[in-house]
Amino acid sequence: MPATVALVDGKLRVGLTGDELERLGTSEQVAKVSLRDMGAVLASGGLGATTVAATMFAAHLAGIRIFATGGIGGVHRGDGGDASADLTALGRFPVAVVCAGAKAVLDLPRTLEALETLGVPVLGWLTGAFPEFWTQGSALPVSARVDGATHAAAVLDAHWSAGLSTGVVLGVPIPAGHEADRAVIDAAIVRGLAAADAAGITGSEATPFLLAHIAEATDGASLDANVALVQENTRVATEVAVALAATR
Known about the structure:
Layout: E1 5-8, E2 11-14, H1 18-26, E3 30-33, H2 38-44, E4 47-50, H3 52-62, E5 66-68, H4 85-92, E6 96-99, H5 108-117, E7 122-125, E8 144-146, H6 149-161, E9 168-171, H7 182-199, H8 206-217, H9 221-245
Parallel strand pairs: 3-4, 5-6, 6-9, 7-8, 7-9
Antiparallel strand pairs: 1-2, 1-4
Helix pairs in contact: 3-4, 6-9, 7-8
């Protein structure tokens, strides 16, 4: 049974009505909510879209072991030391995050190093390479490859049954027909990073700014890719969730 996670009218919700989904998607007053922001947004009674970290927290409270998203946050490029709370959440909550890897605007090698330090497995869906969001990836290895839903469910079950309490990243490559042109994306990222630096945009606002900049720079091609990868991640998460339920 699928459920969307959000903050609605002062409550942390796992499962939204159609009207609530419409509000979340159309309101101009939707806060970006990570773990540090949850108390303030709940107290305000407003709407909040949860990050991977906050969604993991909600899923863990509800007893949910798998959720799908676009891409996880990670270590930002440069020497500023900015790292997403998604990483520490993956080290704290035993939830599998099905995603197209980490957002490509990040420092992907350092993000994988951080996950290794936290003891978080990074699985590749039918691949040995870490997916790179808009592109399938080729250079960065995952910690283990899984060849289908039954295999993935067996790895998740074994991980948690052994007493390990971390989350797990299941990286799903974007379908080949929807993969973005790597050269175009890389150039757009470089220009976006320069624009963010010039505008003094840092912290939690950096990734939304960069994604919007890249969407404009690619004439919307990155948005089309976003839709395709989220649909694929959701399909895979559904298959793995069914297989994992069968192990209980």
